[in-house]
Design brief:
This protein has five domains: about 90 residues, GIY-YIG endonuclease, CATH 3.40.1440.10; about 140 residues, no CATH class; about 110 residues, Nucleotidyltransferase, domain 5 (2-Layer Sandwich); about 150 residues, UvrC, RNAse H endonuclease domain (Nucleotidyltransferase, domain 5, 2-Layer Sandwich); about 55 residues, no CATH class. About 45% of the residues lie in helices and about 20% in strands. The strands form four sheets. Strands 14, 15, 16, 17, 18, 19 and 20 form a seven-stranded mixed sheet that branches. A six-stranded mixed sheet has the order 5-11-10-9-12-13. It has a four-stranded antiparallel sheet with strand order 1-4-2-3. Strand 9 and strand 10 form a beta hairpin. The termini are far apart. Belongs to the UvrC family. Keywords: Cytoplasm, DNA damage, DNA excision, DNA repair, Excision nuclease, SOS response. The UvrABC repair system catalyzes the recognition and processing of DNA lesions. UvrC both incises the 5' and 3' sides of the lesion. The N-terminal half is responsible for the 3' incision and the C-terminal half is responsible for the 5' incision.
Length: about 600
């Protein structure tokens, strides 16, 4: 690679070769780094057509004092060199990733009986670093998996053969509970320990398939040798790997290593989400903000993000997919835009993350100021809704030990409870405690009524429950031929997971998000309203049964009282005149005597 300086008057002498150019100001400060297929043509474009440049670029050109170039073998090499120079120097006119975090790594030490532990410092000669991990939680999940599947030591002792032979160490609690095989006392040979380390390396690289095959082979080998306890031991390890992998989003077992990028932008910034796929599983997800410096296009911003994020997360995947096409092709970097299939679904997932990150940034910056609409706009973004959900209705069922099944519907307008629109439902068509059938009934009744009365449908329906309740509500909408006209979701209580119809994987909204808090508030209000109604129904039923025990008051009279006064409390508070008018003198006297006895008893 050659490097040389040119003055402004000499730019026409630049070679017609691929490379990197660096602009310096009069203070010898590096202000911009660029890459080019042809250095001569690219640099000349700044000076020959200066009038066609935008304001920011013209301002940069005025600052240029001299130019340094570096010639490379290909345009792709220029792209990589440009990335390294920007990372090292951070020139003020170059696009920069807004990310000041120090990411954690897992270190596999280079020593006898290697250790695996987390670190944020990369020191040469210590061992092999795996990562970086986009979050501490993701890193701890991998470390926990390795320690549960393999007997890898957690101590920091020097287990050189000399130290172990001296008998300096004693086994610890990890040995006694089966998490370590005691290499410190020479109870485990190093060659056996290193077999586990070899398999752990596959997991550290995100390749669970190799480790799973290892345990399958061991399990089959043990079973063939009639060592069934040993076979069961390997089966448990295999189950742990299967369980861990099921927590990851499985794109498609046929999709191998792949990088996914989704970009959204506004006038000032772009937001790019990156998904790293290994063996069909999403193992890393990261979203970054890029601030525009010279009115760069989305394609230019995306290219910057692709190069830097692949470099940061050490990706060498041959295939890269994105939601937009790059402006030019680079030999060595194949970026495609899928239109259908599982890869298109991955793009949609990446875009959902990018849009959510953008919304969070706008909320944090205060650019969305009206809190009422801010939360609704955030909810619209989180759920990818066409319209802002200013009319939300939520349903909940209530039956305690299978008695008196009822349901409730609460309505929120502009993010606030509209109490006058709340509705109670007695379950009419379902026998016994069947939450799914009950949900189908009440949702059907609600929207059949709205359609009949030609009233507006909500912008979002929320079902208190998981996939089962959601499917039941969807069935009602399909019967009414309005499925697809109203967005509908289910919210499961335990993990606050958001389910969409016919979607295999739930959406997890940030626990601190205002939009999730709004959904929780609506769900809790529906639950409160249903429980209160259920208690009243049970109480009325019990009170009505008690009334029929009074001589002269039968079932019809009890129902007449409850229908007229609406509540038990109002019956007890009613005046003698009111009761006389409704029941006559004889039955009124008997009721008052019974109420007095109840009060004193």
């Amino acid at each position: 690679m050659q490097a040389s300086f040119y003055t402004l008057d000499e730019y026409h002498n630049l070679p017609d070769l691929p490379g990197v150019y660096k602009y310096y100001n009069s203070s010898s400060e590096l202000i911009y780094v660029g890459k080019a297929k042809s250095l001569k043509k690219r640099v000349a474009s700044y000076f020959v057509k200066a009038t066609g440049l935008n304001h920011k670029t013209r301002r940069m050109v005025k600052e240029i004092n001299n130019i340094e170039i570096a010639i490379v073998n290909s345009e792709f090499d220029a792209l990589l060199l440009e990335n390294n120079l920007i990372k090292q120097n951070q020139p003020k006119y170059n696009i920069l990733l807004r990310d000041d975090k120090t990411y954690p790594y897992l270190l596999l030490t280079d020593e006898h009986f290697p250790q695996i532990y987390p670190t944020r410092k990369m020191l040469p000669g210590k061992g092999t670093y795996y990562g970086p991990f986009a979050s501490v939680k993701a890193m701890n999940n991998v470390l926990e998996l390795i320690r549960s599947v393999f007997t890898v030591r957690t101590c920091r002792l020097d287990l050189s053969p000399e130290k172990v032979a001296e008998g300096k160490y004693k086994v610890c609690l990890e040995y006694h509970i089966g998490n370590c095989l005691g290499p410190c006392e020479g109870l485990q040979k190093e060659e056996e320990y290193l077999k586990d380390i070899e398999q752990a390396k596959h997991i550290l690289k995100g390749n669970l398939a190799m480790a799973k095959n290892f345990f399958k082979e061991k399990m089959q080998e043990s079973a063939e040798n009639l060592a069934f306890e040993r076979a069961h031991y390997f089966k448990l390890k295999l189950d742990l790997l299967e369980k861990y992998q099921s927590k990851s989003l499985i794109a498609n077992p046929n999709i191998k290593d792949l990088d996914v990028f989704g970009i959204v932008s506004d006038e000032k910034c772009a937001y790019v989400n990156y998904l790293k796929i290994i063996n069909g599983s999403v193992i890393i997800t990261k979203t970054v903000e890029l601030k525009k410096k010279l009115d760069e296009t989305e394609a230019e911003l995306l290219l910057t993000a692709i190069i830097r994020l692949r470099d940061q997360f050490h990706s060498d995947a041959d295939e890269v997919i994105a939601n937009i096409q790059l402006e030019e092709e680079f030999e060595g970097l194949n970026v495609t835009v899928p239109k259908i299939g599982d890869k298109k679904k991955l793009i949609d997932l990446s875009l959902k993350n990018a849009k959510y990150y953008k919304q969070e940034k706008l909320l944090a910056s205060g650019e969305v100021k009206d809190k009422k609409f801010r939360v609704l706009k955030q909810l619209q973004s989180d759920l990818s809704l066409k319209d802002m959900p200013d009319h939300i209705e939520c349903f909940d069922n209530s039956n305690i030990q299978g008695t008196n099944p009822v349901a409730s519907m609460v309505c929120f307008l502009n993010g606030k409870p509209a109490v006058k629109e709340y509705r109670h439902y007695h379950i009419k068509t379902v026998e016994g405690p069947n939450d799914f059938a009950s949900m189908t009934e009440v949702v059907g009744r609600r929207y059949a009524r709205l359609l009949e009365e030609e009233k507006p449908l909500p912008k979002l329906i929320v079902i208190d429950g998981g996939k089962g309740q959601l499917s039941s509500a969807v069935e009602a909408l399909k019967t009414l031929n309005i499925y697809g006209q109203i967005p509908i979701i289910g919210i499961a209580k335990r993990l606050e997971e958001i389910y969409f119809p016919e979607d295999q994987f739930p959406l997890h909204i940030d626990k601190k998000s205002e939009s999730l808090r709004l959904l929780q508030r609506i769900r809790d209000e529906a639950h409160r309203f249903a429980i209160t109604f259920h208690r009243n129904v049970r109480s009325k039923k019990a009170f009505g049964t008690e009334l029929t025990k009074i001589e002269g008051i039968g079932k019809q009279t009890a129902e007449k009282l409850l229908k007229h006064f609406k509540s038990i409390k109002k019956i007890k508070e009613a005046s003698k005149e009111e009761l006389l008018e409704l029941l006559g003198e004889s039955r009124t006297q008997k009721l008052l005597e019974w109420l007095e006895k109840e009060k004193s008893g």
